[in-house]
Each structure stands twice: as C-alpha cells, then as structure tokens.
Amino acid sequence: MVDPPYNPFWVLEGTTFRASCSAEVRDLEWFIDGSSPKVSGYEEWRNSTTDGVRTTVTISKSKMGWDVSPNIICRSPSAGKDVVVGVNIFAAYIRNANISEGNDVSVECRPDSSPEVSTVSWSRDGAPLSNDSGRVILLENNTKLVILRSTPADAGVYTCNMTLQAGPKINQTFTQPVTLAGKPYLFEKMSSHVQVYLNDSLYLTCPVKGYPSPEVYWLHNGDTPVSPSTRVTMSTYEDVAGARLSVRNLTTADMGLYRCAAENGLGRVVKTFHVGVTGGALTCTGHVISLVLAAGVVTWVMRVE
C-alpha cells in the first residue's frame, strides 16, 4: 500500500515530496531511478511492527525541482511485486501586486499544467472569493483575481487553491500565498481628545493596518520620540507591534499632543491625540498645593505654613 494513494502524484515545484510504502513483508524497499533514495538526495525512514510482520518505509525530499522526473518504485523481492509511483512536477506562476488606491488591481496564479487536469479557486482569511464577492472579478479560468476600485483595506495575503486530478476520482489540492501590498491605513475611528487624571495611567491605541505590516513609532509634543521606560510601555495591537502606548503615574509633563506614525515601504499614516491631565489635590510637606486645569490653563494655588 502506498500513501498518499495518488497515481500519478502531483508535486508543486519547490515544495516537499513525501510518500510511504507499507506491506506485510520484511524486505520492503524504495528505488529512485533504480538506486537507493539516498543517492538522489531523499531522506528515508523505516518502521516495523513489534512482531516484524508489517514494514513501512517513508521517503521525503524538499524543494523538488522542475527538471526532476523521478522513476519511483516500491519493491518487495520476496513478494515479487513492484508498485510504480508516477510523479508529475508542476510549476505555478505567481504575480503579486501593489495597491494604488481607487484603481483596479489584479494578481495571478497560473498552474503550469493543462486546463483539463487543473482548477483554480481563491480565498482570503479562509473565506472563498468569487464573482459574487462584491468588487471581486475572476478571469481567465479563475487564474486572475481582479479587485475593482481597490482600497488599502484590500491589502493582505490571498490564497490560491490549485486542484489537480491525480486519478479518475482523486484530486490533489495545493495552496500558494499571493500578496497584495498596500500602504498603512487607520481602520478604526477613535476620539482624538483624551482626558485623564493625575497619577493615573494613559492608554492610547494606534488603529493601523497595512501589508507589509507597518512599523509604528510615537512622538510627544512635536518630534520628541516616546521611548520605553519604567513608566512607558509599547505593546502589540491587532498584530501590529508597538501600536498600543501605556504611560503610568501621569504627571503634568505628560499632557499635550501625541502622534502615532505608521509606515511601510508603500506609505505613511499619522494619528494625533490631544491629551489633557486633570489634577486633584496634592499634599506637600509644610504647605498645600492645589492644581486646577481649566480651558487648557494650569493654575497653582499655594499656602505657605
């Protein structure tokens, strides 16, 4: 018995070929072009049941090349039987693209095999795409995916699913990532005005996405970089590193304008926050100080004892 039970067995160029042969014999062997699999760069594993009745031999080779058309045989001399495994290696032409906002954009996935034995479908985040999927159009036997009036939110990784016939009633499916790159964008509307209390904590979130994932940095009151410290931390939000800013034990020096800037190789986007710090009463040795914030003006009231 050969697993997987495909004959011919399709292999996508550059991917791994793996097959197992199992039988109730002790002298089971694989032959690649008449020689041991190791001669052709294959790895080989042999397992037997505890009683030694059934033997399983597995072979594997990574990054199968287009120029390789191996003659593969699973053989048992004692049984006088050969199982010939046909291997067809095919290539897939992948064309990625960058989004130009408002314009139509297309990507391609073309298996290098005859149309009679292959079909192509598309998905994104596990959801299938079709001509009924809003602004999506599939052309040329589904090998070309077009998105009309593209937006930055269309950027990301799309999955091309290639199904090839491995027999009259047996199909093999291969997946390939196809990328649609786009500049960073703000995916949530958040208030730009934040009011917090003295000595409390400030939490700001930069709601950005993009592909490739953007790099995020924070600025305070102009071009002063916000750096991590014992009070300041930056963490991941929606899979974007550094997109969440936390500042503990707020002081009046922490008020003002905060900007998060997100950029990748295709563009840059900035979100601005106006942060006000409202003070309560502060007690100091020898005198009392009251901090009042009104209309953006800080007033100190002091009594000397």
UniProtKB/TrEMBL annotation:
Source domain of life: Eukaryota
Leader peptide range in chain numbering: none
Query: Pfam families per the record?
Result: I-set
Give start and end of each Ig-like domain: 70-175, 184-278
InterPro entries found in the cross-reference section: Ig-like_dom, Ig-like_dom_sf, Ig-like_fold, Ig_I-set, Ig_sub, Ig_sub2, Striated_Muscle_Regulatory
| Keywords tagged on the record | Disulfide bond, Immunoglobulin domain, Repeat
The answer on whether this UniProt entry bears the keyword Disulfide bond reads yes
Instruction: Write down the SUPFAM superfamilies for this protein, in alphabetical order.
Output: Immunoglobulin (SSF48726)
* Protein name listed in UniProt: Ig-like domain-containing protein
